[in-house]
Structure formats: structure tokens, C-alpha cells
Design a protein that fits this description.
369 residues; alpha/beta; Rossmann fold; two-stranded antiparallel sheet; globular; binds guanosine-5'-triphosphate; binds magnesium ion; binds zinc ion
């Protein structure tokens, strides 16, 4: 059998956000559509491409955390609070890019507010080089500033199952590998209830997650993510080493008291994202991690020099066991804390132009505090 000189999908200016095979503009498939703007699709997996994929810069944001870290709750809450903050503070509209795919998150939102159990569809079966692989689904959103001078951009979120990252697994073969190599920013969601040190420090907490089986391997997971990105660097030359990494210690409703009075201050102030406050909050969280699990800090630092630590809670309170025997928040008590801050910081790093125009418009040459 004559081997082709190049495997399919390794060349081209574009990469499909689902199957990650490459192609050139001219290769995109035009799906039949009744609307005047016909839908475009990937020539390899034939999945519909996000709107304006050829026109607007897309930024890949990888959310990752171990099993039960709270990723789905976080992403679901994020898509509720981020549009509000973007519009209120920065005059930026946030639109659903692909309602068909994003329904997986929208359904989750309904569930969260009604506390029914849910079946997740964060991965999708894709035919890739003759094999069927479950790939993380791209959840796309378009960011449109009110004034035309600031450019539109789009975000693609992925909800990555950390349990796929096992030591010894061939990192570059993972379905998440291409996406991590292309990531413009990473949000790592650290689960305090999956850390022996945090669990010991939280002794006496009423959160039912204190009882769950402990699989303390988040440092190893961070190391695997790094290994994966390193392995991919040979394959994908565009991979950047210093992408912003947000290490979010989630479920902060449970552990904030461990900061012993050091406050987490809201860095969003009147249309400004205060970098000094982000750095201060980061130092407070880092100090706690350094005290309880220094190996996690080291592993996170190895991931990127552009690293900040965050405290966030999707629920703002501890879940309880419902009639179905599952842990669920009280929909009436949902009070997300700082959930939008990590991504706003990442945005300030990857597309500062989104913010700049507004800042100078409302703050004429004020000396920064
Ligand atoms: N205390 C507290 N618990 C939370 C919070 N967010 C999620 N949880 C709990 O964490 C557990 C996992 O939540 P999910 O959002 O399903 O986490 P996940 O990482 O998507 O889980 P898998 O997809 O199953 O790996 C659930 O028991 C939630 O009740 C939070 O903000 N505070
Ligand atoms: Mg999940
Ligand atoms: Zn594809």
C-alpha cells in the first residue's frame, strides 16, 4: 500500500475546533442553508463551523479539572455571569455562537436551577482519520464591543475531563491534546475536596463532599497537562509557551475562611479590571496553596510563567443531597462568587484591545493607583 506523503489534515491555515484536523479556506464545505449566510463545515468531520469562523479571531479556552472538580457547574454559571459583567462593565455584547452545541450548557443551566439530574454532553463522537473518537465539544461565543473601533472576537470553551490525563498515557494521542496545544488560555479548576491537605484543613465542614472518596492527584494532572503541551510543541509550531493560566481554587464557599481574614476583593470596579487587585488576590490564594499543597503551586508554575491564582464558587453555598440522592445546590440560593474573573483576566492578556478603548474613553489619562 502506497503511504501518502502527508497524513490527512496535518496541513492548512485553519484547524477544525472539533476534530482539530487542518484545512485551507478553500476546502471548507458549504452546507445547504435557507438563510442567505450559508453554513460552513469542516471538510474532515463535516461538523458545522462556528459563525464567522473565517472572519473573526477565535480564542481557544481550555477548562480542565479532575472528576467532580465542579467544571460543568462552573462553565454553566460562567455563561450566565460573564455576559452580564462584559456588558455592564465594558459595553461588550456576548452572543451564543452555535445554539445547537451550546444547548448542552443551556440545558445544564435549566437543570441547575431546577436541581434535576443531568446527562452531560461535553464530548462528541467524531470520525477522525478513520477512527471514531470522543472529542471535547466546542462551546462558542462571540464578543462584540459596542463601538466599532474595538474589534470583535470569539471564544471557544472546552470542558475537559481531567481523568483522561493519566501518567504514562501517550499525551500527544489524547483527544484533548490538539486543543491544549492551540489554547490561548487555560482555566484549571482545583477541587479542594479532592486534596488531602484541604480536607484536613476543612475538618468540621458541613459540605457533604467531605465524605467523598479522595483521589488526590491534581498535581500529577497538572504535570500531565504540561507534558501534553510539550509533546504537542513538535507537532504544532504555533503553540505558545507563556499563555495565561488561571489556577482557580473552586468551591470557595467552603474554604475562604482558611484565608484567615485576608480578603478576596472584587477586581471589577467601574468599567475597569484592576490588575493590582487580581495580583493581590492571587498572592493570597497562592500563599494558602503553598502552605497546604506546595507541589500544586510548583506544578502550576511549570505550566506557564503567566500564572494567576483565583478563588471562585459557582454556587456560593454547599450543595445538599436531594431526593434522588444526588448532590445539588439550592436554586434559590445560587450566589456565584468571582466566577467571571479568571476569564476576564485571560481576556485582558490575550486581547487587551477589547478593553483598552473603553478604558481610555472613560478614564482620561488618570494615573493608575
Ligand atoms: N461547595 C460547592 N460545591 C460545588 C460547587 N460547584 C460544584 N460543586 C459540587 O461539585 C460536584 C461536581 O460538580 P460538577 O459541576 O458536576 O463537576 P464536574 O467537574 O463537571 O464533574 P464531572 O463532569 O462528573 O467530572 C457536585 O457534587 C457539585 O455539587 C461550588 O461552587 N461549591
Ligand atoms: Mg462535568
Ligand atoms: Zn472537523
Amino acid at each position: 500500500m502506497a503511504a501518502p506523503s502527508q497524513p490527512v489534515g496535518t496541513k492548512g491555515e485553519l484547524a477544525c475546533p472539533l476534530c482539530w484536523l487542518r484545512f485551507d479556506k478553500g476546502e471548507v464545505i458549504h452546507l445547504e442553508a435557507k438563510s442567505p449566510t450559508s453554513d460552513l463545515a469542516c471538510p474532515h468531520c463535516r461538523h458545522k463551523l462556528p459563525p464567522d469562523f473565517l472572519r473573526v479571531p477565535y480564542h481557544t479556552i481550555s477548562l480542565i479539572g479532575d472528576q467532580d472538580a465542579g467544571k460543568s457547574s462552573f462553565l454553566c454559571m460562567l455563561t450566565k455571569v460573564l455576559p452580564v459583567a462584559l456588558y455592564r462593565e465594558f459595553g461588550i455584547g456576548f452572543q451564543d455562537g452555535d445554539p445547537e452545541v451550546n444547548d448542552a450548557i443551556n440545558d445544564l443551566q435549566k437543570v441547575m436551577f431546577e436541581t434535576r439530574s443531568f446527562a452531560e454532553t461535553m464530548y462528541e463522537q467524531v470520525s477522525r482519520s478513520g477512527r471514531t473518537v470522543a472529542m471535547p465539544r466546542p462551546f462558542t461565543y462571540t464578543l462584540t464591543p459596542a463601538e466599532k473601533v474595538r474589534e470583535q472576537c470569539a471564544l471557544i470553551f472546552y470542558n475537559n475531563a481531567g481523568e483522561h490525563f493519566q501518567p504514562g498515557a501517550s499525551a500527544a494521542e489524547l483527544p484533548e491534546a490538539q486543543q491544549l496545544a492551540h489554547a490561548a488560555g487555560i482555566i484549571y479548576l482545583f477541587d479542594p475536596f479532592n486534596s488531602a491537605a484541604f480536607r484536613a484543613a476543612l475538618k468540621g465542614s458541613a459540605d457533604p463532599q467531605m465524605e467523598k472518596t479522595l483521589v488526590d492527584r491534581q498535581e500529577a494532572l497538572l504535570a500531565e497537562i504540561r507534558a501534553c503541551r510539550l509533546a504537542m510543541q513538535n507537532q504544532f509550531k504555533g503553540a505558545k509557551a507563556n499563555i495565561p493560566v488561571a489556577l482557580v481554587v473552586g468551591k470557595s464557599d467552603a474554604w475562604l475562611p482558611l484565608l484567615e481574614g485576608v480578603p478576596i476583593i472584587d477586581p471589577l470596579q467601574e468599567g475597569l479590571l484592576e490588575q493590582a487587585t487580581i495580583t493581590k488576590n492571587s498572592a493570597a490564594v497562592q500563599q494558602l496553596l503553598q502552605r497546604l499543597c506546595p507541589e500544586v503551586v510548583t506544578a502550576a508554575e511549570a505550566l506557564s510563567p503567566n500564572l494567576r491564582f483565583f478563588a471562585a464558587s459557582a454556587f456560593g453555598h454547599a450543595p445538599t443531597i436531594n431526593e434522588a440522592g444526588e448532590l445539588a445546590p439550592d436554586p434559590a440560593q445560587l450566589q456565584p462568587q468571582q466566577v467571571e474573573i479568571p476569564i476576564l483576566w485571560i481576556l485582558s492578556q490575550i486581547c487587551p484591545a477589547l478593553f483598552r478603548a473603553l478604558k481610555t474613553a472613560s478614564e482620561p489619562a488618570s494615573p493608575s493607583a
